[in-house]
Amino acid sequence: MKKLINRPEEAVRQALEGVVALSPGTGLLSDENIVIQSGLPDAAARPVAVISGGGSGHEPAHAGYVGRSMLSAAVAGDIFTSPSSDAILSAIRAVSGPAGAVLVVKNYTGDRLNFGLAAEIARAEGIPVEIVVVADDAALRDTVAPDRRRGLAGTILVHKLAGAAAAQGNCLTDVAAIARSAAQRVSSMGISLGTCILPSVGKPGFVLGEKEIEVGLGIHGEPGVLRREIASADELVELTLRTILADGKIRRGDEAVLLVNGLGSTPPLELAILARSGLGTLSTAGVTVVRAWAGTFLSALDMPGFSLSVMPVTSDDLPLFDMPVEARDWPGSGHLNTQLVATPDRPDNLPVEAQEDQVIITLAGRRLQEIFAYAARALIAAEDELATLDGISGDGDLGASMRRGAEAILDIPETAFSSVSKGLSSAADRVRKAIAGSSGPFYAAGLMRASRHLAKIEDPSANDIAAAFSAAVQAISDLGGAKPGDRTMVDALHPAASMFKDQLAAGLSPKDAWQRAVTAAQEGMRLTIDMRPKLGRASYIGERAIGSPDAGAAAVSIWLAASGTAVQDAA
């Protein structure tokens, strides 16, 4: 187990110290793991306090939501363990006045018992307290009674409404009623791709197969209600929302808010995809989403996965959701963008693709199209091989980049091959847009320079092609600064271009000269195995890259060899 902690028993306190250090307007009680709003007015003038908490390991919940217009205090227990009733009572005493306190509790036995006992003691001391229990887990709708379901990330929406209502000066009864109404309306469900690891345990709570996921789980690393094979993001969102809608709290025609929650190890890219899918699925179901948020709101340590929470809203809810807060981890208004796609104006001087009936495709253009097709299909077939090679010294994305570029090449319309120059120019344009990272600019630059070199030649000879090939390699070197021996794609390109030109000059046929150029590229690629990288991402790991060929040079060898099968003798 690898964890960025000091000692497991100190993790909670030290984490809270870090949170408070980064959160002006909060404070940490000296003798308890309780984060409170700082600068509260005198007790007699305080509004209703809104207090929540529970086991730690759900960060940013709950300490991240302490701040004006949200939580007054958050009580942190040990990892996945309810805080004691004494700690909860300390929080009530620290932030409450005669207006009283609302305790927002997730529906777990330990939390209910300890928050409930603390409330009883506080009431005996003269502090009015109301308890609101959140039991929003829709996955358990066919398993347990509604009041026995688990509390999930929908709790954060309850925090927001209750905190805003308290900040507006509502009385205890009204704040509790608003929070209770929200808790009754919100419905949530989670899916995980794996388990989490508790710092004190050091091993997973359960093990999933390579393609297995847990559906309908809680927030403590426990298994879900069923295990199934992984599916696409859209399919998993549809499954989740189908269950939530079947729970009956949200109906066609409702306006609702959506919370897309990461369980701890889900990257923002994936959360954004889930949000997109969630908005679309709800729209199709006749539910209008008026506010939505995506991020990690209530995690399960380092669990990979997500939960969705949906709550129908009324006109009274929206002002509360829109009220600004000072809590560190509340993300903002949740307003949606109704203009998803922006279409840029096209300058009048940009070339417009010619109509098919106005274009005559030359024999040389068709030959180039065939060469491109062979090369592209070879790169698509080599995606895994290139990804593996690139992963040794980089981020492993070259295989996917080459596939995207190859697919773009195959998608070039036939009308673009009215000449070799125009075909090369179209390929440069497609590759530039399809391939991210460094490969796209390199290949686009080479193709553009080759296109310019052949611009006024209707039927290029083999020597013309050789000169254009050399010009393309020079463009790549000029752009990136790479030379032979730097362990880059140039180590395959440069010997290939030189060999093709030299063998033609020696009298070989274009086909034989090309085959020797392919052999030279392959030998150049093999030489990179023992080279220390001098440029690019591989240079960051130095000698650790030695022992495997450069992935960019390997890609060059693959498409050169494939294109050789389409090369025909030319004058």
From TrEMBL:
Claim: Metal-binding is one of the keywords in the record: no
Taxonomy, superkingdom: Bacteria
SUPFAM superfamilies listed in its UniProt record: DAK1/DegV-like, DhaL-like
Keywords assigned: ATP-binding, Kinase, Nucleotide-binding, Transferase
Gene Ontology biological-process entries: glycerol catabolic process
Pfam families: Dak1, Dak2
Keyword Transferase among UniProt keywords: yes
Domain DhaL: 366-565
GO molecular function: ATP binding; glycerone kinase activity
Gene Ontology CC terms, in alphabetical order: cytosol
Classification via NCBIfam families: PRK14479.1
The protein's name: Dihydroxyacetone kinase
Phylogenetic classification of the source organism: Bacteria, Pseudomonadati, Pseudomonadota, Alphaproteobacteria, Hyphomicrobiales
